[in-house]
Amino acid sequence: MNFDSNLSLICPNLHILILEYFTGEQLLDFIDKIKDFSHLVKLDIKELKERRFDELIRKIFNANNHQFRSITFDKSSIFLSLPDNDIHQISYPNIEELIINLIDCDMLGDLLKLIPNIRRLHVNLGRSPHVSLTSLHKVSTLNHLTDFQLYSIYMVWKFEDITNIISKMPYLERLVLYLFTDDEHFLNRQNCIVMIPSSLVQMYFFLYYYIEEIFIETNILLNTWPSNYITSLCILNESCQYITIHTISFNLSTINIPPTIGQHMLPCWKYMEKVKNLNIYGEFSSIDILMIVQHLHQLQIFNIYSITHRETSM
């Protein structure tokens, strides 16, 4: 793409810029042209495709003379990386809202150092061999952050990991966690009460809890939650056991359903009216799908992966 003209002179009153279906290379070239827009404060990037460039995040944060207050990527965009040398770059106090896909959880701490005045932060993490938060130790408290969402189902999280993250956010008002874990500390309400700041007003979570065996203690721990606030479902197959645990009402806009979970959690869907983006993996019959989507009145995007059609008797 070649934009030699000064775009700010052509569109001097531009307030929101939406970029769709760019490749990483195209965006890297185009973003340098975004400058001197005095009213442009929001950048919305959708369906960003490969290739990934390490310097892309820094380029985007620097765009428009550091005047963007809101930068968002949708979940269909690629996961981005944050090079180690970015931690020595200037911070971006202008950014108040950020929704981003990060490829590695250890980049979270480096990211937080760059956005000291962030107010709303939603992070979708990619697949890593294990959870590592070494970069979090030197992060100052984020005193302006009131809305935090962490979406990560490709790594196994420990309760201590989440506690360490939230400890940097003393004035949170809204917390959303979508995680995979094998740590029973998440099952006990008292642990969660200790973890969250006193300023918290809303808390929503959806946990995939993996266990090798079903113990009676699991049910005892879950009973510490009031029945009108949390629901759980135990799912078994030949190789593993899952418990899905989520708040009522379920307040996430996106959900991924693995086959071992999706085929058994149908009774819970009445609590999920706000889901807008549904991803289903594995083998489902048409009846299974209909029983799920009948409750999702706000559904806008529906992705079905590797589905096997099979006849189902009525």
Automatic annotation (TrEMBL):
InterPro entries, per database record: LRR_dom_sf (IPR032675)
Highest taxon listed in the record's lineage: Eukaryota
Protein name as annotated: Uncharacterized protein
The organism of origin for this protein: Rotaria sordida
